[in-house]
Specification:
Layout: E1 7-14, H1 17-27, E2 31-38, E3 41-50, E4 59-64, E5 77-85, H2 90-99, E6 104-109, E7 112-118, E8 124-129, E9 151-158, H3 162-172, E10 176-181, E11 184-188, E12 196-200, E13 213-221, H4 224-236, E14 245-246, E15 250-256, E16 262-270, H5 289-292, H6 295-301
Parallel strand pairs: 1-4, 5-8, 9-12, 13-16
Antiparallel strand pairs: 1-13, 2-3, 3-4, 5-9, 6-7, 7-8, 10-11, 11-12, 14-15, 15-16
Length: about 300
């Protein structure tokens, strides 16, 4: 049976790109590892934030549309994106959220403590201390490797058909059901990050895509060969799955599970440093070859963004 290591990336829709950069780099201390454009709408950025190396399991990506309508979080979406922080760092993060006037709740589930909060555009996030995952050797402002977000812990999925979503996680993606608590069922993959998925047991009416909502969740495939195996595997399970699409930093296939959540399976290779060095990732606007001839036009159309140290 095929098994994914866990989450590759999560992609969301947000508002003004500078507000997005200020929050994820300035407040959360993540590295902007790639500044490119939406391949289907090149007048819009596609921004990628992750750990120092931009490794799978750490990457959150955004389509920022300034002035776009607010979405509605609901069934068929990732309801909450979970990040892992180092053990012993939760007080730092409570103080940091307070410093930036970000309201948060402290909650418990499955024996763990979570800090729940929303980003500047309404996307629901949470932080949890775990030993899992390697240290993120990135420093931005007061966020140093000792306290830096290591990557995804996982996600809470909201489904219009939770039973079917659970079946997809187990029978198609190869996750293991490991627990139940109140209105949640917990599944886990074998990877060390992006491995813990909680599914709300109660069916939820469909959400509406827009600012502050997750567009899709992507799972890991090792390489192109593994992805073709996944494509056949998903199809054999009765799901309609797309052709392979070249996303420059990974190849992708997509299918919608029966709870209306859009799943992607993305390759770990080639990664984000193949068109920039490790040291310079995220500094320049990188365009796919088909748009390079339009660079001047696109650079004029895109809203300028800059990296800021908000702790100064």
């Amino acid at each position: 049976m095929k098994k994914t290591a866990g989450i590759h990336h999560i992609t969301a829709i947000v508002g003004h790109p500078q507000e997005n950069v200020d929050f994820y780099a300035g407040v959360l201390g993540l590295r902007l590892v790639k500044k490119t454009v939406n391949f289907d709408d090149p007048g819009t950025y596609h921004l990628y934030f992750g750990n120092d190396g931009g490794k799978p399991g750490t990457i959150i990506t955004f389509f920022p549309w300034a002035g776009a309508y607010q979405g509605k979080i609901g069934g068929g979406q990732v309801g909450v994106t979970t990040y892992i922080i180092p053990v012993g760092s939760i007080n730092f993060w409570e103080n940091r959220l307070t410093k930036f006037n970000i309201e948060f709740n402290k909650t418990e589930r499955f024996g763990e403590t979570y800090l729940e909060f929303a980003d500047v555009h309404g996307l629901q996030l949470e932080l949890v201390e775990r030993e899992d995952g390697e240290q993120n050797n990135w420093t931005h402002g007061d966020v140093t490797p000792e306290v830096a977000i290591k990557g995804f812990g996982g996600a809470i999925l909201l489904s219009t058909n939770p039973e079917k979503t659970g079946e997809t996680l187990q029978d198609v993606m190869g996750l293991e059901k490991v627990g139940e608590e109140e209105d949640l069922i917990r599944f886990k993959s074998y990877g060390d990050i992006g491995n813990t998925i909680d599914v709300k047991r109660t069916p939820i009416g469909s959400g509406q895509m827009g600012v502050g909502t997750v567009h899709h969740i992507a799972w890991r495939a090792k390489d192109d060969e593994d992805q073709l195996d996944w494509q056949k595997h998903v199809s054999d399970q009765g799901y309609g799955v797309t052709a392979v699409r070249d996303r420059n930093y990974f190849n992708a296939i997509y299918f919608k599970e029966h709870g209306e959540i859009l799943f992607e399976i993305a390759t770990d290779t080639p990664g984000f440093a193949h068109d920039e060095s490790y040291e310079t990732m995220g500094e320049e606007l990188k365009l796919p070859l088909q748009y390079e001839q339009h660079r001047d036009q696109l650079e004029k159309a895109l809203i300028p963004i800059e990296m800021k140290n908000l702790d100064k």
